């Protein structure tokens, strides 16, 4: 599928992570903006698979404005799912924040070089939506001008600031997970001409991500190793030069004495059996 933004043909995956960074799914699709019906079809399979294993826990969907479609909102309400999505700015939404934008810009002028951020909550909706929804506007003014963002949610509790900064903006962490998957594990190597072959490649890279994520999760909680990048983890603890000695009942690895991370490697190897649990 041709993508006008990248000016070329290709595939793009839909990638899902949980709040702790575990990769839930990655499905290859044409490199164009998905329709609401296509997203719902995929969400139905995803939510059904999750519910088949964990029927009781509450599920919250968080995504950018691509997922804020009437079909998706309708699906979330029917399945009793919480959601918080970005919303593309429209003239209908902007009329609610005209005064707030002017006031925020005036405050920013009184503090040159600093940004002023304010929030507003109201109920409105697009003409294609079934009903009005809770909309939160974030208005930020600074040296670069005024920037306004909108989100929609069905969460009842929480102030606009808390919902935007603590819950919605946490979605940005998923971008770091995608970067680790794509850059450090070469998951962008979908150069096959057939989509099914590229999807198989994604499955292999999902497995690699899970191995690296689980290995990193075994590190001490308060150490820098718990949040270290995958490529650093691979170069420091996995891609090592060792002398392999094969014994009758075991295999012995001889590391050089100058190896700088012997303590953490010994700790990781002691916990390695937990990878099989």
Strand portion: 15-25%
Mean pLDDT: 87
The first-to-last residue Cα distance is 41 Å
| Quaternary structure annotation | single chain
**What's the number of helices?**
9
Helix content: 25-40%
Low-confidence stretches: none
Gyration radius, rounded: 23 Å
Structural class: alpha+beta
Major β-sheet strand ordering? 5-6-9-8-7
Order of helices and strands: EEEEHEHEHHEEEHHHHEEH
Question: How many beta strands in the DSSP annotation?
Answer: 11
- Main β sheet profile: 5 strands, mixed
Query: What is the global morphology?
Result: globular
Structure description:
- With 277 residues, the chain is α+β, with helices and mostly antiparallel strands.
- Helix 1 (36-53) runs parallel beside helix 2 (70-78).
- It has a 5-stranded mixed β-sheet with strand order 5-6-9-8-7, sandwiched between helices. Strands 1-2 form a two-stranded antiparallel sheet.
- Strand 8 (133-142) and strand 9 form a beta hairpin.
- It has 9 helices and 11 strands.
Write the layout of secondary structure elements.
Layout: E1 2-3, E2 8-9, E3 11-17, E4 23-30, H1 36-53, E5 60-63, H2 70-78, E6 82-87, H3 91-94, H4 98-110, E7 116-124, E8 133-142, E9 145-153, H5 160-168, H6 172-184, H7 195-217, H8 230-238, E10 243-246, E11 251-254, H9 262-271
Parallel strand pairs: 5-6
Antiparallel strand pairs: 1-2, 3-4, 6-9, 7-8, 8-9, 10-11
Helix pairs in contact: 1-2
